[in-house]
UniProtKB/TrEMBL annotation:
<dbReference type="InterPro" id="IPR036249">
    <property type="entry name" value="Thioredoxin-like_sf"/>
</dbReference>
<dbReference type="InterPro" id="IPR045073">
    <property type="entry name" value="Omega/Tau-like"/>
</dbReference>
<dbReference type="GO" id="GO:0006749">
    <property type="term" value="P:glutathione metabolic process"/>
</dbReference>
<keyword id="KW-0808">Transferase</keyword>
<dbReference type="Pfam" id="PF00043">
    <property type="entry name" value="GST_C"/>
</dbReference>
<dbReference type="InterPro" id="IPR040079">
    <property type="entry name" value="Glutathione_S-Trfase"/>
</dbReference>
<feature type="domain" description="GST N-terminal">
    <location>
        <begin position="3"/>
        <end position="82"/>
    </location>
</feature>
<dbReference type="InterPro" id="IPR036282">
    <property type="entry name" value="Glutathione-S-Trfase_C_sf"/>
</dbReference>
<dbReference type="Pfam" id="PF02798">
    <property type="entry name" value="GST_N"/>
</dbReference>
<dbReference type="InterPro" id="IPR045074">
    <property type="entry name" value="GST_C_Tau"/>
</dbReference>
<dbReference type="InterPro" id="IPR010987">
    <property type="entry name" value="Glutathione-S-Trfase_C-like"/>
</dbReference>
<dbReference type="GO" id="GO:0004364">
    <property type="term" value="F:glutathione transferase activity"/>
</dbReference>
<comment type="similarity">
    <text>Belongs to the GST superfamily.</text>
</comment>
<protein>
    <recommendedName>
        <fullName>glutathione transferase</fullName>
        <ecNumber>2.5.1.18</ecNumber>
    </recommendedName>
</protein>
<dbReference type="InterPro" id="IPR004045">
    <property type="entry name" value="Glutathione_S-Trfase_N"/>
</dbReference>
<feature type="domain" description="GST C-terminal">
    <location>
        <begin position="87"/>
        <end position="210"/>
    </location>
</feature>
<dbReference type="InterPro" id="IPR004046">
    <property type="entry name" value="GST_C"/>
</dbReference>
Length: 225
């Protein structure tokens, strides 16, 4: 059996970077394999035949897929530096917020980013409704996890990482200091935390990548003459 920990990811994936952050917080050594999703490797297809997506964590030759599931696996396998709270009710709440992020917050922001027009805030109205819940949840706390980074911070890390990219491309403010003061402060704290900042993808490279994705999508949606 192949020993060790391997992570199949891409340099820019918000799902992949969650796993990098969690392994770093736990202090687990791992090998990173950056996939080209236009030409997926035979190993990725072997390890994730159902979804054929990254991230995939391979531990001692056995794959674990789906980023939120991988985070749970990491927590159960490496007990040091816990990411989840101890209390069962608080653990349930953490799982709820992480799922809310992927089910509601992410699609609403992505939809507005891809389809909304530049400098047009109203495209983000459904996203603002979702972000209000996060603002409430964070009120009075440094991190979702309290005084230290926990599972919900890691699950929402993409907000801190990608929203500034989307804001630059759209020339608007989505997580505005006045509208979302707690979320805004959290974004600064989270992105500055050393373990997190160490593996932050370059902002300009992300802007170029996501601008190209948006341009391509707008072109495909445009009515043909
Ligand atoms: N729900 C999945 C989503 C993973 C995902 O969408 N990965 C993208 C990259 S960001 C992917 O591998 N896409 C390849 C494809 O759709 O063919 C998770 O949380 O792991």
């Amino acid at each position: 059996m192949e020993k060790g920990v391997k992570l199949f990811k891409t340099w820019s994936s918000p799902f992949g970077i969650r796993i990098v952050w969690a392994l770093k917080v736990k202090g687990v050594q791992f090998e990173q394999i950056d996939e080209d999703l236009a030409n997926k490797s035979p190993l990725l297809l072997l390890y994730n035949p159902v979804h054929k997506k990254i991230p995939v964590l391979v531990h001692d030759g056995k794959p674990v897929v789906e980023s939120l599931v991988i985070l749970e696996y990491i927590e159960e396998t490496w007990k040091q530096n816990p990411l989840f709270p101890e209390d069962p009710l608080e653990r349930a709440a953490a799982r709820f917020w992480a799922k809310f992020g992927d089910d509601k917050v992410m699609p609403s922001i992505w939809e507005a980013f891809i389809k909304g027009r530049e400098e047009e805030e109203c495209a983000f109205a459904p996203a603002f409704e979702n972000l209000k819940f996060l603002e409430e949840e964070l009120k009075g706390k440094q991190f979702f996890g309290g005084e230290r980074i926990g599972i919900v911070d890691i699950a929402f890390g993409w907000l801190a990482n990608l929203v500034p990219v989307f804001e630059e491309i759209h020339a608007i403010k989505v997580i505005d200091e006045e509208r979302f003061p707690s979320l805004y402060a959290w974004m600064q704290e989270f992105s500055r935390a050393p373990l997190i900042a160490d593996c932050w993808p370059p902002h300009e490279k992300l802007v170029n990548k996501f601008r190209a994705i948006r341009d391509q999508s707008l072109l495909a949606a445009a009515p043909h003459a």
